[in-house]
Design a protein that fits this description.
alpha+beta; Rossmann fold; Dna Ligase, domain 1; D-amino Acid Aminotransferase, Chain A, domain 1; eight-stranded antiparallel β-sheet; five-stranded parallel β-sheet; 34 strands; globular
Length: about 625
């Protein structure tokens, strides 16, 4: 193995390049049209274009990836995670082309990469599984009948892939047809496979997964567990190792089952066996991810191992030098996923105008206490074509409390201006008493999200005076002096960016606020843990016909692509009824009517690209 093509993008590719370069290997990046100037393109030894904008036209095209490998002289392919990383046909095509596949073999991927087949294998070996349906008959009629047999609530899942895409929680039969349609469409778009399965949903489980690693010589180990219970839309936001809910006995039982499942499939490389765990320590298999996981960094932090390095070594035929009893997990690690989305989980796009990583984030590898895996730089454009994940910030401490404190400090030091992020939401979750006590379950944000958002809104309210004053300062001293708020003593300009100290209580060190324009009359402001967008509201609000038009329009809140339109001119609609489905950042979002009314006209059609605030539907009040 001399030159590795990484069939992925962004922070994922950069993370793999880092280990490959440390080991003296050359790397090849691939890029779609929107990723022409991406960091992973710059960091690779060589780069090859794939063309196209969507994943389906670029990173999911096996033919284009193999052509890039041939033209670049690559002798191995690493799939990263996401995209084709769990596609057995891709693994087979790489092997057939005479290249080294860095991952489990195609047969193991087929056995475990499909959630349905993995469940069948687990059933045969007595591994606990929830009641469900994972048959070949994918008709809506069969799935509806299966749901009746299983009982509600039921979880609809994409059989292929992961990352929460193609997942829907359904509480009654009336919701199921729409959930099947949406999950199937999302899965087809993300993984090229719309096959679904159903399983009984637990009310308040924890999501706990076991990291396994296996060589080609019969040795298979587990590296302990990760707790991934803080989620939104069935996608993980915070992960930690070890789990606050797992003791040594439960770890041994879950680890034994995970290794047994991997051995049964002839698995090699690294992978993750995911379980649901209830408050009594009972657990059930969810699935096995036949790839490296986004959250692998927390396992690396507590184990001292580089899992990408071991992927490369195992693919080269090396033996694992460890036995299970040799592994010694140290301390506690917690990871948060920084995403380009607001506190309501709506995706955000735009250009990053200022980026400052936490000072210690360059400390990586074994013994690192803080790590930030990302592909950010000033000037990078965040587009709607791919998912919203910007990076993973990970902290390690001797104790869980120490890891939380270190991570909170890093989030406060992190600066990303120009694109709103979930930075404040992540910090609020870490500070929440339930999370701090180690009691978070998968419904954590469903139960506490509104209260957390309310607290964040209160923070914004108190920060607005200082931020508003900052916007007046560039207009001249007279405007600033006319403000009723205290004037900061120091202001620093960096082109369009503005730094100023925010007024705080006497005797404290004021944090510095940074502001960046987002467009005419809109600014992005950060100061410590405060992160908000201000708009110029100095004009009079619309009145008369203009106000009526604004009320009777459905506008898209983000850039994306129209997937479906569920309305026709003249049709009556009810408040909350889905009118348009828009895909953005690999997730589908149902946009509904704000009030009862009658559709007057449609302004979009399926397949059409739409921009933030674009009118989708106009309708008349009932």
């Amino acid at each position: 193995m001399r030159r590795i093509l990484v069939a992925n993008r962004g922070a994922i590719a950069c993370r793999i390049f880092r280990t490959a370069h440390r080991l003296g290997l050359e790397t090849v990046a691939v890029w779609s049209d929107p990723d022409r100037d991406a960091l992973h393109v710059r960091e690779a030894t060589e780069a090859r274009p794939l063309g196209g904008s969507t994943a389906a036209d670029s990173y999911l095209r096996i033919d284009k990836l193999l052509a890039a490998a041939r033209s670049s002289g690559a002798d191995a392919v690493h799939p990263g995670y996401g995209f084709l990383s769990e596609n057995a046909d891709f693994a087979q095509a790489v092997a057939d082309a005479g290249l080294t596949w860095i991952g489990p073999g195609p047969d193991a991927m087929r056995a475990l990469g499909s959630k349905a087949r993995a469940k069948e294998m687990a059933y045969a070996r007595g591994i606990p599984c929830l009641p469900g349906y994972h048959g070949e008959d994918q008709s809506d009629e069969r799935l509806l009948a299966a749901a009746r047999d299983i009982g509600f609530p039921v979880m609809v899942k994409a059989s292929a892939g992961g990352g929460g895409r193609g997942m829907r929680l359904v509480t009654d039969m009336a919701q199921l047809p729409a959930a099947l349609q949406a999950a199937r469409s999302e899965a087809q778009s993300a993984f090229g496979n719309g096959e679904l399965l159903l399983e009984r949903a637990l009310p308040r489980p924890r999501h706990v997964e076991i990291q396994v690693i296996a060589d080609m010589h019969g040795r298979c180990l587990h590296l302990g567990e990760r707790d991934c219970s803080v989620q939104r839309r069935h996608q993980k936001l915070i992960e930690e190792a070890p789990s606050p809910a797992v003791d040594a006995s439960l770890r041994e039982r879950m680890g034994t089952h995970a290794v047994e499942l991997a051995r049964a499939a002839g698995y090699t490389g690294v992978g993750t066996v995911e379980f649901l765990v209830d408050e009594h320590g009972r657990f059930w298999l969810m699935e096995m991810n036949t790839r490296l996981q986004v959250e692998h960094a927390v396992t690396e932090m507590v184990s001292g191992l580089d899992l990408v390095e071991w992927q490369l070594r195992i693919a080269s035929g090396e033996r694992l030098p460890y036995r299970q009893e040799h592994l010694n997990l140290q301390g506690h690690a917690i990871e948060v996923r920084l995403c380009a989305e607001d506190e309501a989980f709506l995706p955000q796009t735009g250009r990053v105008q200022l980026f400052r990583a936490p000072a210690a984030s360059e400390a990586r590898g074994a013994g690192a206490r803080l790590r930030f895996d990302h592909a950010l730089f000033e000037g990078v454009e965040i587009t709607p074509w791919y998912d919203s994940l910007l990076g993973k910030l990970v902290a390690h401490g001797a104790t869980r409390a120490q890891a939380i404190a270190r991570l909170l400090s890093a989030l406060e030091a992190l600066k990303v201006l120009g694109v709103p992020t979930n930075r404040r939401l992540l910090a609020a979750c870490l500070r929440h008493p339930e999370f701090a006590a180690g009691h978070a379950h998968v419904d954590f944000l469903a139960r506490h999200g509104d209260a957390i958002r309310g607290e964040l809104a209160a923070e914004e309210f108190h920060a607005v005076p200082e931020a508003a004053l900052a916007l007046l300062l560039p207009q001249g001293a007279a405007s600033a002096l006319a403000s009723p708020f205290p004037r900061p003593s120091r202001v620093r300009h960096h082109g369009d960016l503005l730094d100023l100290p925010v007024c705080e209580a006497a005797g404290t060190t004021p944090p510095v606020a940074q502001l960046a324009p987002l467009g005419p009359g809109r600014w992005h402001v950060q100061a410590g843990t405060v992160d908000l967008v201000l708009e110029d509201a100095s004009y009079d609000p619309p009145v008369g016909a203009a106000a009526a038009a604004a009320v009777n329009e459905l506008r898209v809140p983000f850039n994306g692509k129209v997937i479906a339109v569920h309305a026709t001119p003249g049709s009556a609609v009810r408040k909350g009824e889905t009118l348009v489905v828009v895909e953005s950042m690999k997730l589908e979002h149902a946009l509904g009517a704000a009030r009862d009314g009658t559709v007057r006209s449609l302004h979009v059609q399926p397949g059409q690209q739409v921009a933030t605030a674009q009118v989708l539907v106009t309708f008349e009040a009932a």
